[in-house]
Design brief:
334 residues, Rossmann fold, 2 domains, 3-stranded parallel β-sheet, 13 helices, globular, disordered N terminus
Length: 334
């Protein structure tokens, strides 16, 4: 009898110990699974780290080193080309000076009507854009890829715009070097032209289109205007205005007021968003050159009018060098 009771007690004790062991094992396994989940999430995050970039529409977490960047405005195009980065998609109405370089890049339509389906098909890992053409569909663009938007009001605010594009592209250090190069070449151009001559020379920036009843004058807060100011040039009274972060950076005058376009030197250009518009505007410029009011301008009579490209209003270190080239070609040693 006593042996039977001991035998039952031992079985009971064994059952309790077994239950405790199983419970402890389950707890350990649950904890391990939880830790494994945390580790997995952490590992996934490590595989695709990102940087938070503050911009006009809020914040975007962009890849550390984006490889497939699509751009929706021509200012962003110039920034990337300055950084020697070739975008995978661009607007069709880019600055014509770089059309050959981007001939094989997917065109997404004019910047005011970007084809979102084409953009989606490219599978970008970063989108650069401006607020004027993306504010209404920013959420849609952000679902395609992290989207960084600038909201600069003038073309003269190009240095801050370029810094934003470079930061988003993971190339801030290279951008700093490019801006150092800009300052160095700026000093070289000033020395070559002569600081005193520069200070006493009024430079006018003019754009002519197909409508000859009006002409555009570019102010101090335009891209070309900032370079002229950095070098030390004076501006005609009609253009000696403008705040770097406030529009307008260009103003239109009637042909009857064409005298306001005069200066010691005039740089003039035309531009069109499409080849057809560009051709019509260039024809308008050629016609303006024979207009009696144009021929009365002092710079015209002195042979100091120089035709340049639209890059004079398209800010980046790359286009700044093109402007410097023009200044040296037309004004040095003359």
């Amino acid at each position: 009898m006593l042996n039977r009771l001991c035998h039952r007690f031992l079985w009971f004790l064994l059952a309790i110990l077994t239950a405790i062991a199983i419970s402890a094992c389950n707890v350990t396994m649950s904890q391990h699974q939880a830790d494994s989940g945390k580790l997995s999430a952490h590992t996934d995050a490590q595989h695709s780290p990102c940087r938070v970039i503050k911009h006009a529409m809020g914040e975007a977490c962009v890849p550390m080193h984006p490889q497939r960047i699509a751009v929706l405005d021509w200012h962003s195009v110039n920034s990337l080309l300055s950084l020697q980065v070739k975008p995978i998609g661009v607007p069709s109405n880019i600055v014509p000076d770089f059309a050959d370089e981007l001939a094989d890049v997917e065109k997404l339509g004019v910047d005011s009507q970007i084809n979102v389906e084409k953009l989606l098909a490219l599978q970008p890992d970063l989108i650069l854009a401006s607020s004027w053409n993306t504010s209404e569909n920013y959420d849609q663009l952000s679902q395609i890829a992290p989207t960084v938007v600038d909201d600069f009001k003038t073309t003269g605010d190009w240095k801050r715009r370029f810094a934003l594009h470079a930061e988003a592209s993971g190339m801030a250090e290279k951008a700093d070097q490019l801006m150092n190069d800009y300052e160095q070449r700026l000093a070289e151009v000033r020395d070559r032209l002569g600081a005193e001559w520069v200070e006493n020379t009024k430079v006018s920036l003019v754009r002519v289109g197909s409508d000859l009843s009006r002409v555009s004058l570019y102010l101090k807060n335009s891209f070309g205007g900032t370079i002229l100011e950095d070098i030390g040039f004076s501006r005609p009274a009609s253009q000696d205005e403008g705040t770097i972060d406030q529009p307008p950076f260009v103003k239109q005058i009637s042909k009857e007021r064409l005298q306001e376009a005069d200066g010691d030197v005039i740089f003039v250009w035309s531009f069109g968003a499409t080849p057809e518009i560009a051709q019509a505007n260039q024809a308008g410029l050629e016609q303006m050159k024979t207009d009696p009011l144009w021929l009365q301008l002092n710079a015209v009579q002195q042979g100091k009018v120089y035709e340049v490209g639209h890059y004079w209003n398209s800010g980046s270190p790359l286009t700044a060098n093109l402007v410097f080239d023009d200044l040296l070609e037309y004004l040095a040693d003359k």
